[in-house]
Specification:
mainly alpha, Non-ribosomal Peptide Synthetase Peptidyl Carrier Protein, Chain A, 4 helices
Length: 78
């Protein structure tokens, strides 16, 4: 597993308050029952805290999977 994916998995697990081992590589807002609208805001806030700045509002709504989180965490331009 890549470092970016592991970092995203830990961030998502923290935001959803679940064990990182419960998050599959293909996890998404559609496959994780705990990832509801309130949890999505916790995910966004965790990403913003990790990056040190607010995300663009459009990007907030485009994040819908573990891989999306890994991409946002790894891309300094977003």
């Amino acid at each position: 597993m890549s470092d970016a994916l592991a970092r995203a998995r830990n961030l998502l697990a923290g935001a959803l308050e679940i064990d990182p081992a419960a998050i599959a590589d293909d996890a998404s807002i559609d496959t994780l029952e705990q990832w509801d609208s309130l949890a999505h805001m916790r995910v966004v806030l965790a990403i913003e805290a990790a990056r040190g700045h607010e995300l663009d509002p459009e990007l907030m709504f485009m994040i819908g999977s573990l891989h999306d989180i890994a991409n946002v965490l790894g891309d300094p331009k977003t």
